[in-house]
Amino acid sequence: MAKKVLIVYAHESPASFNAAAKDAAVAALTAQGCTVEVSDLYAMKFKAAATTEDITALFAGGVEDAENFCYAKEIKLASEEGRLADDIKKEQEKLKEADLVIFQFPMYWSSVPAIMKGWMDRVLGSAYAQEKRYSEGIFKDKKAMLSFTTDCPESVYSDTGISGDINVTLWPLQNGILNYCGFQVFAPQIFWDPATASPESRSSMLEGWRTRLQNLCGEAPVYFAPLDYFDKEKGFLLKPEVKEKYASKECGLTVGIHMGKPLPANSQTKAGV
Fold first, then answer.
1. Which ranges of 215-246 does DSSP label H, i.e. alpha helix?
2. What is the pLDDT of residues 59-94, one digit of tens each?
């Protein structure tokens, strides 16, 4: 089991189901001997906007090129030179120590709340590097997962539901952020519409979460195509031999790389798919 766990938590109410899920995770993981730290973003009043204020002064205004400001470039340079704002440094220290990161949040507009996206933008900003990404990303020895609530039943996010396939919804978060940074991504823990569920159903959801946490790190991560499947010299397109390998398959390689085929079912929601 992972020994050090960081829970990045985004909900304002201590009476919320998200708070209960966070507390259940803390208790279950601590009982297994893990050291658990929680970044309670609302309680911390964590700044969401990624701005020049994230970079402490060395050049005029704190940045190298104020006239043509590029956050990704400047934050990486500032990280290398130890010039990041204190709140970013503190979160990066927590992340450095963690074996596993759990993001606990209510789904907002098919994504994370703004304050959590700000954490990702600012804290993970220096990990945005073309030379080290995806299966070669800087956090390739760490694990991460999403744990979140929805305000709708599972049918809404089905392949025939009005919001479409939840696997497609999760692709930008799990692949575009977590996998890009190198994390091994566990299948998400999705709590479907707890607000309208009965007390018994909510208790059952939490018990299922506690049970899963007992064996979480024995799970296989979600599958993502490794970086070496793609030809760097040709704009990171699939290599011909990979395309040939999957040509006879019924479904595409992943949700995002579907090769004109049907999307692979559950590829963002089930371990090892």
1. 240-246
2. 555 788 878 889 988 898 898 888 999 999 999 999
Contact 224, 254 (CB under 8 A): yes
Identify whether the C-beta of residue 17 lies closer than 8 Å to the C-beta of residue 92: no
Taking the C-alpha atoms of residue 119 and residue 221, their distance in angstroms, rounded to an integer, is 23
Amino acid letter, 237: L
pTM tops 0.70, yes or no: yes
Task: Name the token pair of 98.
Answer: 């963690």
Q: Are 36 and 5 in contact (CB under 8 A)?
A: yes
- d(Cα 205, Cα 200) in Å, to the nearest integer? 9
CA nearest to 209, candidates 5, 13, 43, 22: 22
Residue 249, both tokens = 């398959």
Q: Is residue 61 within 8 Å of residue 53, measured between CB atoms?
A: no
β-strands 230-231, 237-238: how paired? Answer: antiparallel
Q: Which residues 6+ apart lie within 8 Å of 160 measured at CB?
A: none
Burial 59-97 (b: 16+ CB within 10 A, else e): eeebbbeeeeeebeebbbbbbeeebbbebbeebbebbee
Could you give the C-alpha distances from 103 to 38, 75, 174, 212, in angstroms and in order?
10, 22, 11, 16
